[in-house]
Amino acid sequence: MNVIIRVLGTAAVTGLLTYPLWAPQWGAGLLGEVAAVPWPGNLVIVLVFLGLVALYCATLERLMRAAGAARPASVWWMFAIPANFVEDFYIIGRVASAIADRVQPAVLRRWLILGYGWCGFQILSLFPGWLGLLGGVIAIPLWLAHWMLARRLLT
Known about the structure:
155 residues; mainly alpha; single chain; 6 helices
């Protein structure tokens, strides 16, 4: 069942990422937002974002290693675009399973809510128009809060 969810989910995400090609009347999408910033600013934004994602992955990997989990490097699947949008949910679940015995249930619940929250709103951010913008505006603070809580769990 997980394979079916991953394949269908990735197909849907691919559709959302490519809608400017097959439904340009909906808007320019994520690539249009990046292109709206003139060169080299758009490159700097993308590189800074990818750098932050790498630091976030490193935090999650350290959490899994500290918990003695199998396959802690699997968090780096967050860079496997477009599959990462769906895989992020599984990554959050794997890390949560790994740390469940090390954190209080209320903290784990908060960590999961923030994690699954940013994953969901990240997908919503791919939608055209105001809905996509709203998804991004909500996803980023949830992601940062999730990251900060993950860092606190390392101490």
